[in-house]
Specification:
Elements: E1 16-21, E2 26-29, E3 34-41, E4 44-48, E5 51-55, E6 60-63, E7 69-72, E8 79-85, H1 94-98, E9 100-102, E10 106-107, H2 116-133, H3 138-156, E11 159-161, H4 164-187, H5 194-200, H6 205-216, H7 220-238, H8 243-249, H9 255-266, H10 270-275
Helix pairs in contact: 2-3, 5-6
Length: 280
């Protein structure tokens, strides 16, 4: 699906993505890269496998490739480091990672394994330090830390193999969900009924509603509003178009609804967002 907008600090120079962000909400999405989230400030709630996990400062959260996840809007901005890296970096161990699931994705400082949290945290903080200081050879140093992280994951993170039935079911879910995401991307500027989107995904309305909620943790209407608001945020940032025009070309039927939903999801009005007056 479309990557929700964050600034990749590596600028595409490396086979991994590095973000330091405090984005309030992040709708359901998935990607092939493995993702590690490290919380710096405030709490963060992450949905994974239709379960919610509260992540506190210094907690780590591991997400395998192809797993649907999302961030729930917190009361306060939660600053965090997000690191994503491609399976190709695992080289010959890549098939093992693809065929296994992470048993306990949330890793706290008091994790039963005394070295796991310490080792992962140490590498991530070194990556952050290398990037911020940019001393001579910092790209090589970051790559070295990435390989250290991979080694820690392979040696210390508990993994469990997917059964063939589980894997097949998971792949079918991703395929169906991708159909939905693509349909929304192509048609979000007009009204989309439940009957219409259910048919696009080859479901009855009842089974689609249940499938989407179980898979993403939110209703289709919530997802559609999230998508439209994020499209509007791009227009507000990148264009000088009037807010009324942005509301309609993002798929909202009225400016009043646009203002209400935008503030609910972004924590401020569209006009404040455009001026850079974001909530603290």
């Amino acid at each position: 699906m479309e990557a929700w907008r964050q600034k990749n600090l590596t600028g595409g120079q490396f086979p991994f993505n590095l973000f330091i962000t405090d984005i309030l909400e992040f709708p359901p999405h998935w990607h092939e890269e493995i993702e590690i989230i490290y919380v710096l400030e405030e709490e963060l709630v992450i949905g994974l496998h239709n379960e919610l996990h509260t992540i506190k400062p210094r907690d780590l959260f591991l997400i395998n490739g192809g797993e649907i996840h999302f961030f729930v809007p917190p009361p306060k901005k939660s600053k965090r480091i997000i690191l994503q890296f491609e399976l190709s970096l695992f080289e010959t161990a890549a098939p093992k990672i693809q065929s296994h699931k992470i048993i306990t994705p949330l890793i706290r400082p008091d994790h039963p394994s005394p070295t796991l949290h310490r080792d992962l945290e140490g590498q991530i903080l070194q990556i952050q330090s290398e990037y911020s200081q940019k001393q001579t050879g910092f790209p090589l140093a970051i790559k070295a830390r990435i390989y250290d992280l991979i080694t820690i994951i392979l040696r210390q993170v508990p993994l469990e193999p997917y059964s063939p039935v589980e894997r097949n079911k998971h792949l079918k879910r991703l395929e169906r969900l991708e159909q939905v995401f693509h349909y929304v991307a192509q048609n979000h500027t007009r009204g989309i009924t439940l009957a219409e989107i259910a048919q696009a995904a080859n479901f009855s309305v009842y089974h689609f509603t249940r499938f989407f909620k179980e898979t993403t943790g939110m209703t289709f209407t919530q997802y559609l509003n999230n998508y439209r608001v994020n499209q509007a945020a791009k227009f507000l940032t990148d264009t000088s178009d009037p807010i009324t025009e942005i509301a309609f070309k993002s798929g909202f039927e009225s400016v009043k609804t646009f203002n209400r939903v935008f503030k609910q999801l972004k924590g401020c009005s569209p006009s404040a967002f455009k001026k850079g007056q974001l909530p603290l």
